[in-house]
Amino acid sequence: MLDSKGGGKPLAGLLRRKTLLLDLLAVAIPVIGFSFGLNFYSNELLLVYMMVYVALAHGINISYGFTGYLPFGYFGFFGAGAYGATLAILDLHVPALLGMLFGGVAGVLVGLLLLPLFRLRGAYFAIATLAAGEAVADIVANPSLQSITNGPYGENLASVYSSGQIYVAALVFMALALLAVVLVKNSRFGLSLRAIKESEYSAAMAGVNVVQLRSLAWVIAAAIAGVGGAIFGWATTVFYPSAVFDSAISVFAIVFALFGGTGSVWGPTLGTVLLYGLYSAVGLSSPQYFQLIYGLAIVGLILFAPRGLVGFGRAAVRRLSLRRAGANG
Amino acid sequence: MKIRKFLSAALSVTALGALAAACGSSSSSSSSSTTSSAPSSITIGTAYSGSGAFATSSVPELNGLKLWMSLENAKGGVYVGAYKKRIPLKLIAYNDQSSAQTAGVQYNQLITQNKVNILVADFGSVLTAPAVSIAQAHHQLLFDQSGTGIPFFTPGNPYIVLCNLPESSIWPTPLAQYMISKKITKVAIVYGTNDFDASQAETVQAKLKAAGITPVFYQGIPTSTTSYGTILTSIAATHPQAVLELGYQPNDTAFLQALQSSGLHFPMVFTVFPGQLFSLFQQQVGNAGLQYTYTYATNFFHNYTSVNEGLNSAQFLATLKKQYPSSVNTLGLLGYNTGLVVEAALKNATSLSQLALRNALTKVSGNLNTVDGNFKINSEGAQIGELLPVAQILPSGSTTKIGIVYPSSAANATAVYPAPGA
Lengths: 329, 422
Hints:
The complex is a heterodimer of chains A (329) and B (422).
Chain A: H1 10-35, H2 37-40, H3 44-66, H4 75-90, H5 96-113, H6 122-141, H7 146-149, E1 155-156, H8 163-185, H9 188-198, H10 200-205, H11 210-236, E2 238-239, H12 241-244, H13 247-260, H14 266-285, H15 290-304, H16 308-327
Antiparallel strand pairs in A: 1-2
Helix pairs in contact in A: 1-8, 3-8, 3-11, 3-13, 3-14, 4-5, 4-6, 4-11, 5-11, 8-11, 9-11, 13-14, 13-16, 14-16
Chain B: H1 2-26, E1 42-48, H2 55-74, E2 78-80, E3 85-87, E4 89-95, H3 100-112, E5 118-120, H4 124-137, E6 142-144, E7 160-162, H5 173-181, E8 187-192, H6 195-210, E9 217-221, H7 229-236, E10 242-246, H8 249-262, E11 268-271, H9 278-284, H10 287-290, E12 293-296, H11 313-323, H12 330-348, H13 354-364, E13 368-370, E14 373-375, E15 390-396, E16 399-406
Parallel strand pairs in B: 1-4, 1-5, 5-6, 6-7, 8-9, 8-10, 10-11, 11-12
Antiparallel strand pairs in B: 2-3, 12-15, 13-14, 15-16
Helix pairs in contact in B: 2-12, 3-4, 5-6, 12-13
């Protein structure tokens, strides 16, 4: 899928290679960082959740950053993934690691089910996905489905708990999610998605199969959320529907992605590591100031860096270049 | 070809990273304390909800625990049997803001970073759930304050003990018996679709069915529900003799407020939390809205004059009122009693290891009498020594009071049934 035919235009080819290299660095650095994370900080659950959120923020990146569709109900795929994996592990007796894939499948199935929501746009789409996520949660927690989902009584994965396996699964999952974003960003597919984001009609006129490509991006985002939910459920081990179908999960993932900057590979990762790190640090050290500090950070973002950290960085570099060019006459 | 090279390099980095992570994580398990020299302090770690849906219940529980700590520290610390001396207590409390996810990270922090001696869970099943497996994985005993969820207590897990209250499925047994004794045959049940409420609903339904009574209305609703207008209208259409609303405090408050504004009257109305947070309900619902409502009577309403650990009921109430006047309720009692269970474990354990603490509690089970009654646990760590009688909120001059009406062995008031105006 990747367009590497840049030989005829050396400058363009060079730029493309440089971009790809930077993108792959955005995969390698977090992977290496988290690989050795436990040697520096032994709260493995925090690191696992952080890796899951990095991946989720990139799921939002694919859906919103590239396509322009903001799914407030992203937690619906997440919760479906947690339950899909749990049912596969407990009822089908598949190994826990393999069960994570079932989580992805569950996320994809819910994603396919919600495809008709693409008839809506903007805020209507966002709110409709929120309602859909709540609906999935209520179905799962319904006492009438106790024989399948255990209804409101939650699930217990203590029999397959393994902190080492969970950590490795989260790491590999995060790496694959990052690689998926690199692939999307540097492919014709990603270019088409950005065209759809700018204008669906113009994209369609230019020969882009809007429905097909938009659905594919949606399904990829749903799969990421599904596997994320599966790993989250495995790490949490004893969980109720309210813990995995929590709208705060969507809010976090969206805020992290926007804070870092969507449409890039670095942005959502930076946003998650910084904001989730801040969230955890403030929550642990100064809980009484938690809402104040976190709120101020988000207000600061909106006021001074509405395009996220990456956008802020790019603008700063551009200003510097212009100033330098001006100084050189 | 170049892209393939890039991708294979990236995958190699991932594989190497996974290998490094596997090595790191396998060496990161914490161990329980078995050192021979006495520590300078006993650290108690807990999570609490300073905001959010569970704050009204969690904060009093934390205050009760703090009360116990201050009383022990005033004596020079808690008595630790393994070292035959008193050791000062230190508290590390993290605010989880009613989020199970945040609570999970904080429990992990308390174990892996703070290396607390004693791990105490936050209020309720939702916020206790993430602690169960973390505690088990790190071989740390979890002092479960009020997480009465059924999935927590399993045969293979010695690292949990329920300090107060029985498993939620046991709670409504006296309630069902009361309705049967009153020959109530038309019962409407609305409950939150969470473990705590659904297990109670299921127990009531099963007990009623065993007596030949099928509820005329039986519906689960999302725990986030705070609008009961339509539900009340549907319930009224079935003409029930008793309406049971099983929810958390925000649900109960919303239900009673909606009932009052609807103008509907039923012969019997039951909700869970007024008995635990009575003064809060008096403020939020008002005495007029609470009158004749049934609720669970916790040991907060029982006068224990003879105890073998901690303060008796009168002393406890006086001290709690003085130090934490806003926490004079059942949750304050539960927090204090958790401290007494910790105290019993530390006093009777042969070492500070987590299994020694658990074994000590097995040893004292059935013989520990506190302001919360008899502490008795089964082999899985679940509380079985405490029962919850049925109480009714009765008019008392211009205000209301709670009277225990069932069973007769615990009763200190006579039930008013049917409620006036029904």
